[in-house]
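Lab channel / #folding
Pinned by the channel admin:
"Please post every new chain as: sequence first, then the structure tokens as a reply. Keep commentary short and put observations after the output so the thread stays searchable."

First post following the new format, from NK:
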Amino acid sequence: MSSTGSEYTTAIGSRITRSFDSLLEGRSIGRFQILIIGVCAVIAMVDGFDTQVIALAATPIAQQFGSNVADFGPIFGIGLFGGLVGAIVFGLVGDRFGRKPALLISVAIVAIGSLATPFTDSTTTLFIVRFITGLGLGGALPSVISLTSEYAPVRRRAATVALMFCGFPLGAVVGGLLSTVLIPASGWASVFWLGGLVPVILIPIIVFAIPESVRFLSMRSDKSALARVLKRLRLPEDLAATIEPAAAESRAPLPSLFTQGRAVGTLVLWVILLLSLLMTYFLTNWIPIIAVQNGLDVRTGILGAVMLNLGSIVGSIVLGRFVRARPTTTIVAGYLLGAIAIVAIGQAAHSAPGLLVTTFLAGFFAIGAQLCTVGLCATFYSDALRATGVGSAMGIARLGAILGPVIGGVLLAAGVATPVVFVVIGVVSVLAALAMLVMGLVVLRRRRVATVPAVAVAHA
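Reply from TO:
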């Protein structure tokens, strides 16, 4: 038996078996792997693009439908709920029939949903189409995670998945910048034509250029397909006969998250992430609309959303450097400073320079702290509990992502003044800070926490 940090190669009688991971170790990431990771990153960009453009197009859509823009809270929320359903359903489909078919179907659903959006003529039909689009976007998530992680060397796997998921905020930034040009020039439908065209282009690329999950191929003992994968990786094809399926990721029972002193930590992490995503998705969906309602032009409202996403990217990197040594102090400070910036958005919503500065700071501190919290969640649990712990935390957090846009719609429909609305959301960030303080004083002080990743996946 030979190993490199873990068991990779095993002799059974005269037959040598290997894990696919062992073949990638010690090798640089090649062009074929870059292609796979790049396509997955583009799919993540499509997700970020779609999430942002529906918020940016909401005002002109409401004007065309003759409806109140405050009624769009459920429309924003249903897309996120569709993503939750899609991730569950297509995760099961991928396990049964392969990641590639699940990814193809998901991307096709996104294309159909986006291209159908310009044909909607009421909030009811738009509500249905947004659910369908969210179903596809959420459905693609398990496949892009699996493909990216499996084709990256083990030692670079976490960083590679995190880098791939930077496509989401990047897609939101691109969506914002393109919307400043397309919506005034060609109408709101143009951004959805573009959002549907990209998935259409991706479909043949996925069919002809992207391989199936290696785990799935090895479980099916499809040695010919494994040989083709090895050839594209410039590895000896005859090694396909020796590849054995990797061990399935362990998934502990949910009650185990509440045993051996983990109950408080588990519950507090759930609260922090739920509040974080509630805050994040409120800001993402409502900042462009509120800016326009306060007398700013559409372009400025869109740029406000762009600055929010740019701030989150920069903040996750900068705060990630400090959170390794002082997780509690860094995350609490991020949420508190983020709360101040969020309240300031409400005061500066009538000023273009003020809006751009405050939205950047809100993204930097509040959303940056959220991304660090996801990393902390990953290090809180042992290897045997990590899949269950992180999965359950992000599932609970999705409820906050759904509630955030809906709560925004309720507040605006009730005629609550803009400064008060942002005070409410600022309080949410303060509550997240207080919950993190409890986490640090009650839980983390009792244990030694492993290093927190600098960049973590925030909308899995």
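NK: Residues 227 and 240 are 5 Å apart (CA to CA).
TO: also worth noting, The two ends are 36 Å apart (CA to CA).
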